[in-house]
Design goal:
The complex is a heterodimer of chains A (318) and B (344). By secondary structure, chain A is an all-alpha fold. Chain A is 78% helix and 1% strand. Chain B contains 17 helices and no strands. The chains are: A mainly alpha (318), B mainly alpha (344). The interface between A and B is large, with 71 and 64 residues.
């Protein structure tokens, strides 16, 4: 187990280094003059452009620049955003907690809804209520957040003033978290697809558990239906869900980018999109790398948890 | 994890009991995969080819035409027919519609600024004074064209990459697939944003931007197929007869993996349409005066608090309808091609 974790950690480091390298190389598809002019402006004199190129080290050999970038990133130095006139680290430090709040709340909410739904549908399988829930899940699953979000705002915030349409910008984490009228719609928009997907997997996983030998044994020794359901089947059915959550993280992050844009939620996605609009490559690269690290870490944790919750899993060296 | 997981492009996979996401993640998640195919077995009373692996061999032994069999199973699927009908209607709407329904989509008309639906403008006008119904047709053309083209390009790159990695094996395979893994660990939408900041988007650039993210999935899939196919007797026979690597890959491995590739390509179209819509919504899609459904939604989102529902509902409905229709078709295709395997 320990050796598995060490191996996975090593792989994660390689992946993150690879991501930095690829993003760096993409960045260098642009001529250095274009990068410099994005900072000093299109009408800067050649001398000014040259000064920027030198101060950023864009004239140094590529391997040196890669090394310096990795060095900087390891020390959490993501450079300066010239468009927002702030260090990228500061921008990320402001945005990241809010995104974690949004993603975390919405994932927990999704699990709290989806797991009972899956169990309920297993108990009532192939009955009208099962079909109704399946159809509902289908509709939510097929509706991307950039369609669902605006629709929810239109009907629940504009036509009926139940929730606020936007998250007030510039608020601190605490203010955002406590403003439930502003949080409900973004959390639900992001959670809708996840609820639909998780409930399907939970139903599938639960149905599978119900056909296992240990369930038959439990029934044979006279355990009640609820005991079979919750003590035997349910706990085993939860195991694949751990993996599912880990696998879903990249999708949830992408969904958060859209959701934040819809609701002006001041998180990482919103920051990335704003930076992209003004050609602020440094910020876009910084947020992308941070989001990737979070994704890789999330999958790693899910894989380790998978082994922890199910003692039957042994990670052998393949 | 598949791109469809982004927001649900692969509804079909989930709802037929098999899961694209899990079955594509070859290797790591055996348990989940077994779980899935076991579930299918229970529902349909037949084994699923998905969990256990690849098409076997090139020799067809059953009576009757293979193509006809596939077609029959496909046509038996009612949802697939619904999907085909929706897709045909939408294509006609987008490509033939403008021939009958002429609208100005070129010059802004500030006198017709965000008018609600009326006799002259059946779906109202947007913030540039463009007729929304006409703009839906124009936007749909970009969405369908880019979606189809990006899926084709992505599938071609992915198939060649995956087949090469699986065929050569060893260090080459490890390097090629680590590259895929690294790109896959960047959240898809963020990678798309980086790319569309770097390359000023036009329709053709967008095709390549989307394809350069989407090819990773077919690459993984085809590599898995190749790994199982290259140990088959007929591939070894080609080798004994002196056939070279390229011949084995192009004439034997890819044709035998074609079923899987077609199914995946179908879902890729739906995903590409969603990607384009997402980029359009973020303001990184095709540029004015071109339109796509995503940028129409973005325009609607700007005037959201004013309650202009006609800027949101029609475009949103179009995206959802087309994506669902394509997923129905992809799902039915998978069932049809699996039946081909079962009757062998």
């Amino acid at each position: 187990m320990i050796s598995y974790i060490i191996r996975r950690l090593f792989q994660a480091v390689v992946v993150i280094f690879g991501v930095i390298l690829i993003v760096f190389l993409l960045f260098h598809l642009e001529p250095t003059v274009v990068i410099a002019k994005a900072i000093v402006g299109p009408r800067a004199s050649p001398a000014q452009v040259e000064a920027v190129i030198q101060s950023l080290g864009l004239d140094k050999p590529l391997y040196y620049q890669v090394w310096r970038l990795v060095d900087n990133y390891v020390h959490l130095n993501f450079g300066t955003s010239y468009q927002f006139n702030t260090p990228v680290r500061v921008l990320i430090a402001q945005a990241l907690p809010k995104t974690l709040l949004l993603v975390g709340t919405s994932t927990i909410f999704a699990l709290l809804i989806a797991i009972p739904l899956g169990v309920f549908q297993t108990v009532r399988r192939n009955k009208p209520s099962d079909y109704a829930l399946t159809s509902m899940a289908f509709i939510f699953y097929a509706t991307p957040p950039f369609v669902l979000g605006p629709l929810l705002v239109l009907f629940l915030a504009v036509d009926n003033h139940i929730f606020s349409p936007y998250v007030p910008p510039g608020d601190t984490l605490g203010q955002v978290a406590l403003d439930w009228r502003a949080m409900v719609l973004p959390v639900f928009t992001l959670a809708a697809v996840t609820i639909a997907a998780f409930s399907r997997y939970m139903r599938s996983s639960m149905m599978d558990a119900m056909t296992q030998d240990y369930v038959r044994t439990a029934r044979a020794k006279g355990a009640s239906q609820s005991r079979v359901l919750f003590r035997h089947a349910f706990r085993n059915a939860l195991i694949p869900i751990v993996t599912l959550v880990g696998l879903s993280i990249p999708g949830i992050v992408s969904g958060a980018v859209i959701t934040e844009t819809v609701f002006n939620f001041p998180g990482m996605g919103f920051l990335t999109v704003r930076a992209a609009e003004v050609f602020d490559l440094g910020t876009v690269v910084g947020t992308t790398v941070v989001a990737t690290v979070a994704t890789v870490a999330g999958s790693l944790i899910a894989d380790i948890l998978y082994a922890v919750v199910d003692p039957r899993i042994r990670y052998a060296r393949r | 994890m598949h791109a469809g997981e982004l927001w649900g492009g692969d509804a079909g996979g989930l709802f037929s009991g098999t899961s694209r996401a899990f079955s594509q993640d070859l290797g790591e998640f055996e348990l989940a995969r077994e779980l899935d195919s076991a579930h299918v077995e229970k529902l349909d009373g037949v084994g699923s080819g998905e969990g256990t692996g690849a098409p076997s061999g090139g020799e067809a032994t059953q009576t009757g035409s293979l193509g006809r069999l596939v077609l029959r199973v496909f046509l038996e699927n009612k949802l697939a027919l619904v999907g085909v009908v929706i897709l045909v209607l939408m294509t006609a709407f987008c490509f033939l519609g403008p021939l009958f329904y002429h609208t100005n989509q070129q010059y802004t008309d500030l006198n017709a600024f965000t008018l609600p639906p009326n006799a002259q403008y059946p779906l109202g006008t947007d913030s540039n004074g463009f007729d929304v119904l006409g703009r839906l047709m124009k936007g749909g053309r970009s969405s369908l064209e880019v979606g189809l083209a990006a899926a084709l390009v992505a599938t071609m790159i992915g198939v060649v990459w995956g087949a090469a990695a699986g065929f050569f094996g060893g260090v080459v395979d490890a390097l090629m697939m680590r590259f895929v893994d690294i790109l896959l660990s960047i959240p898809t939408l963020l990678l798309l944003i980086v790319l569309s900041v770097l390359f000023t988007p036009s329709k053709y650039v967008l095709i390549f931007v989307i394809a350069s993210v989407a090819w990773l999935y077919p690459a993984r899939l085809v590599r898995g197929e190749t790994l199982t196919l290259r140990t088959r007797e007929y591939v070894q026979a080609v080798r004994v007869m002196g056939g070279n690597g390229r011949r084995i890959v192009y004439r034997h491995i890819i044709p035998n993996a074609i079923g899987t590739i077609i199914v995946n390509a179908t879902f890729q179209v739906a995903d590409a349409i969603l990607f384009l819509a997402a980029l359009g919504f973020l303001g990184l899609g095709v540029h004015f005066p071109d339109a796509d459904w995503g940028s129409m939604l973005s325009d609607g989102a700007t005037y959201l608090t004013a309650g202009y529902w006609w800027l949101i509902v029609p475009a949103g409905l179009c995206i959802v309808l087309v994506v669902v229709a394509i997923n129905f078709i992809g799902d039915a295709l998978r069932d049809a091609l699996e039946v081909r395997l079962q009757r062998r």
